[in-house]
UniProtKB/TrEMBL annotation:
GO terms for molecular function: ABC-type transporter activity. One of its GO terms (biological process) is response to antibiotic. It is a multi-pass membrane protein. This is Transport permease protein. It is found in: Cell membrane; Membrane. GO terms for cellular component: ATP-binding cassette (ABC) transporter complex. It comes from Herbidospora galbida. Belongs to the ABC-2 integral membrane protein family.
Length: 252
């Protein structure tokens, strides 16, 4: 019998198999189209940024932002749906599956999705000359870390609400601003100091800077261990928050 966490992963993979082609556009094609339109189109007007082409500068930001947005998308309606509409988590709770298995299995599912997605994106970017360093091969792992650090807190929120209208607020006031002001499209140093502080505490900014350091072969703004420590802190705090939310919702 498979471990409970693996069983939860298998459940999500089985459901995803039916939706694969429907999600292929957002998972694979949209980031590439966005990269071409912004990186090449807008980049032709922007010119070089930090001594590299705008295309090369924006590649790591698009990768990390795509992973972040996937993490948020997969832990809002799907999580609330499994509590409120399909009662999937309640069904799991009636089996030997534990709260930790539910959370870990769903996060593992997102990691399994983002790794090949990022690898395919890198392969396409190579054709456009968007990479400058062999360290680019570690970016899928960085994107996986962004997924885990971002998904767990949102899972905790989704487990605590009963109205999906709150997700509009989450998208509008958290996901979109974090994507716009986390160094994806322009350096955070150009922002006011208060906005810089907000960027520094977000998991996306740390993922963007680590990916950028890898693809460009340069040192990140902070030491690598500091960026990694911030992602770990989000993971630990988010894991506790998610576990508590699931336990409360399932009345454990």
């Amino acid at each position: 019998m498979a471990h409970s966490t693996v069983a939860v992963l298998e459940r999500h993979l089985t459901l995803y198999r039916r939706l694969f082609w429907a999600s292929a556009m957002s998972s694979f094609l949209l980031p590439v189209l966005f990269l071409v339109s912004i990186g090449l189109g807008v980049g032709g007007y922007v010119g070089d940024l930090g001594g590299v082409s705008y295309l090369q500068w924006i590649v790591p930001g698009v990768m990390a932002a795509t992973a972040f947005q996937m993490a948020v998308g997969e832990t809002t309606y799907p999580v609330l749906g499994d509590f409120k509409w399909t009662r999937g988590y309640h069904a799991m709770r009636a089996t030997p599956v534990r709260i930790g298995d539910m959370v870990a299995g769903q996060v593992l599912f997102m990691v399994v999705r983002v790794l090949p997605q990022t690898a395919v994106f890198l392969a396409i970017v190579v054709l456009f000359g968007g990479l400058r360093s062999w360290w680019s091969v570690v970016t899928p792992l960085v994107c996986a870390a962004v997924v885990v650090a971002s998904a767990l807190p949102v899972m905790g929120v989704s487990a605590r609400i009963d109205n999906d209208g709150y997700f509009a607020l989450l998208f509008r006031f958290v996901m979109i601003p974090m994507t716009l002001f986390a160094g994806v499209f322009f350096p955070v140093a150009q922002l006011p100091l208060v906005a810089q502080w907000l960027a520094w505490v977000s998991p996306l900014w740390h993922g963007v800077e680590l990916c950028r350091a890898a693809t460009l072969g340069v040192a990140p703004p902070w030491p690598i261990w500091a960026h990694a420590l911030c992602l770990v802190a989000w993971t630990v705090a988010g894991g506790w928050f998610a576990m508590r939310g699931f336990a409360r919702r399932l009345a454990v």
